[in-house]
Amino acid sequence: MRWRLVLGIAVLVSLDPAAISAAQPSLCPPGERRLSAPNLRDAPADTAATGERHSWILVGDGSFEQGDCGAGSAWTCTTNTTCSWILDPLHIWGYPAYDGVMAAWLGGFCGTPNSNSFCQDVFLESAQLRWRWMGYVAEGHASNFVYVKFNGDIIWAKEMTWPEDHTYGTWEVMTIEGVYLPEGTNTYEVCFEFEATNGANMLIDYVEMWRP
Ligand SMILES: [Ca+2]
Q1: Are 46 and 130 in contact (CB under 8 A)?
Q2: Which CATH class is domain 60-210?
């Protein structure tokens, strides 16, 4: 009788949907030691300080402050895991968002390496886009790619490599410019996508476009 009771409890615990939805993302695969957080360094010089800022405008929910995927966010999210990837990064990364509280996380782990995306329709007046990013790439992790797509076409790609893209502790600026936009429309589905093999991380925040 006693073993039947124990078995019943074990089944109930494993099927509990709350336990499944509470999965927490991590920077490293299970069993791999997380690298310690270096002291926060100053962010690189921003054009805001030069007065150029007036021509850069934030895309809709470009700071990811409207909430999690499906809970207020303007971004449509996909993931191959059960974790959520728009969040306050402070407690997991050890660093706050670049702007506000929330940021979007490409890659990472949630049981398995995470492949995910953030997309929304944006009215682009030019093909210049920029955002802030922080990378976490453990040594030996390779062939993990970040893509930016306009209407499904890859217009920018980057492999997250060690040590170049391990900017852990520093928010960097990434700018796309000079991309050819076909005539006929200015509204594009803009997507940030991460394709994982053995896992790396890019935290992104404050997505802006250039207004000529
Ligand atoms: Ca933010």
Answers
A1: no
A2: mainly beta
